[in-house]
Specification:
Layout: E1 8-13, H1 19-29, E2 34-37, H2 38-47, H3 51-61, H4 68-81, E3 85-87, H5 91-95, E4 101-104, E5 110-113, E6 127-129, E7 172-175, H6 181-188, E8 195-200, H7 203-211, E9 213-216, E10 221-224, H8 251-275, E11 278-282, H9 286-301
Helix pairs in contact: 1-9, 2-3, 2-4, 6-8
């Protein structure tokens, strides 16, 4: 299935709801989609000792969380390295002065790094994707009785010779970030997400799913003794190696994770609901949710405008 417009997607759901399963199915069905995992980006930058990676590692070694600004920059840097993101410069900068790159000043704000000239430092303009969707998106009927319309964002001035397009090959699912409304606000300053999917499955169903889940740790393959059992009890289908349970699949541990998720996700969902890009899908299983998700995805990104 071919996309006609760029999709910039976030999946939100409780632990065990099947975000990974839906991501895999979306990637398989829509080859233009890519998975952008914030944790993988962070680990790769730490491993290769990039400036941001070194800063993040020192923060983690001190027992603190990586600042939101650093995570946003890591994501933007990854997208820019793929050619999916371009800095938006002013006409004055393009006509004579040197360009600037986003960095962080002592206060943690996104500021520009001055070049070797004596020109004063200027505030960096927001990034502009070479894929911009301006279609208003409404909330699901089961979330709100009325549609929520978003004002179409103005396209910033771009350097001569560059024509911003809604290029479907720049489509991605962003995994692992943002997790809070504050993080979403920081991301909004530089990157426009145009679909946030809330996956809803009854808590009792999720708890049953968690309690019956088995994993093959080396490969990440997941089984469930209820609806996806291994061919040989307790053994991985491919290698025959033993299956194990995740430490956080204990019912009480999962309930604690669920409470934390609900506390942080409620304002996050309200944030994206106000922006008009939230859509909710309900189902007792991934197989029930997937067809609904595909239909909505194709309505937004695969049909002629």
């Amino acid at each position: 299935m071919q996309l006609l417009r760029a999709a910039r997607v976030i999946l939100v759901g409780a632990p065990g709801v099947g975000k990974g399963t839906q991501t895999e199915r979306l990637l398989k069905r829509y080859p233009q989609l890519s998975a952008i995992n914030s944790g993988d980006i962070l680990r790769e930058n730490v491993r290769t000792k990039t400036p941001l990676g070194v800063k993040a590692e020192s923060t983690m070694n001190a027992g603190s969380l990586v600042p939101d600004d650093v995570m946003v920059k890591l994501i933007l840097s990854n997208l820019e390295s793929r050619g999916w993101l371009h800095s938006a410069f002013t006409e004055e900068e393009s006509s004579g002065s040197s360009s600037t790159l986003p960095s962080e000043d002592a206060t943690g704000s996104l500021e520009s790094i001055p070049n070797d000239s004596d020109a004063p430092t200027q505030k960096a303009e927001p990034y502009t994707l070479n894929a911009t969707s301006t279609d208003p998106i409404s909330l699901s009927a089961d979330r709100s009785p009325a549609s929520v319309q978003s004002a179409s964002p103005a396209i910033p001035w771009m350097p001569a010779g560059y024509n911003p397009q809604d290029n479907p090959d720049t489509s991605f699912i962003l995994d692992g970030f943002p997790r809070t409304a504050a993080q979403a606000s920081r991301l909004d300053e530089n990157l426009s997400i145009n679909l946030v999917v809330q996956l809803l499955t009854p808590t009792s169903t999720l708890l049953d799913r968690i309690c019956n889940r088995l994993v093959h740790a080396p490969s990440g393959r997941v089984y469930n003794t209820t609806f996806n059992p291994p061919k040989v009890e307790g053994k991985d289908d491919v290698t025959g190696e033993p299956l194990t349970r995740r430490k956080d699949d204990d019912p009480e541990t999962w309930k604690a994770r669920l409470r934390k998720f609900e506390d942080t996700s409620r304002p996050l969902l309200e944030h994206y609901g106000a922006k008009g890009c939230l859509w909710t899908v309900k189902g007792d299983s991934s197989d029930e949710i997937s067809p609904k998700l595909f239909r909505e995805f194709e309505r937004r990104f695969c049909q002629e405008a």
